[in-house]
Amino acid sequence: MKATIPQAQLVAVSETNDEQLGRFIDLHSDVKPYSSYQDLLQAPDIDAVVIASSTNTHTAMVRSAIKAKKAIFCEKPLSMELSEALEIQAMLSKERTFFQLGFMRRFDPAYTSAMNRIERGDVGSAISLRAVSRDPGCPPLAFAKSSGGLVMDLCVHDLDLCRWFSKSEATEIYARGSAIRYPELGSLGDIDHVDITLTFANGFLATVEGSRNSQYGYDVRTEIVCTQGALFVGKLEEDSLLTLRSEGVCVPTVPGFLQRFETAYRLELEAFVSDVLENRQPSVGVEDGIHAQRLAEAANQSLVRGKPIRLTNEKEDEQ
Questions:
Q1: Assigned CATH for 12-104
Q2: pLDDT score of 314 more than 80
């Protein structure tokens, strides 16, 4: 298979669905197929693994990869339960295994440029953030059951960005939301729209909107207000084409996350490979995943209780 990540080669893939695995191997006959990831982890010619399975399988796979002494890239979130994430953190500390978590928005050129401008002092220091993340519609219910829900699956990206831009930790979080358009998500204990407000220890303020109700396309935008200006990341338009008709003006919108963050996905894997080979610390580590997961779990608690949650010493208390 032709390498797209410098200094790395895809040599094996694991998939429990035989039909999907067969289709992949038909296209990439030089990649060795495994129906069991446990068998793949025993292969001596594999140095690193990418875990991109459903959320409810992350913990078990990471545990096994640590024991197999493979460098690990794992998609977010780290687990479905914070206690499991803390267990993984302890294992990584003991085994000194390289581990990077998949918060790809940090690698998106626009977000990276915004951070660079703040760090250079071009717009002063960041004082607040507003994030919007809207999916085009309801995900497959099979996925929703294993994803951790709207907050853990979608908003966790924005919660990580809040920490990244604030350079601080949250002291309070308040979430309000419900299953408005898709009652079938409500039957799973999930929601399709949420508004989250956060206060940070250094005074930084943030608001996060997460939604499954963007019927017009994939809509991810972030506004960072600074002491000497503001930064806007993201756009609705896929390209600059405007179609003018008697019915109105039409603009092509971004269809999905793969199109919007294609470059970011590649750049984060390039960083993963480079950091492993150069023996550097991961750019996004297990601690980042745990902090974001704490915020997501606190937001879900706030949804249930209908009250803000105060965050003190990394523990959540009802206000």
A1: 3.40.50.720
A2: no
